Amino acid sequence: MTIDRMVLAFAGFAILLSLALGVPESPLFVSRYWLWFTAFVGANLFQSAFTGFCPLAMILKKLGRKPGPAFD
What we know:
Largest sheet: none
Distance between the termini: 14 Å
């Protein structure tokens, strides 16, 4: 699995988890403040599409994972 796919998988998981923890109708609800984490992940994905800067991609690259076309 390339870094690109790992970043997308992690972001998707983080968004779904934070929605489950932040939406009052969810059985896993903890606090509405979890929705700020959803916004943070979404904003990070948006800015990385234009700048190519992604902290998770940098960490995975240092761990020796194979880069894909987006995070060379």
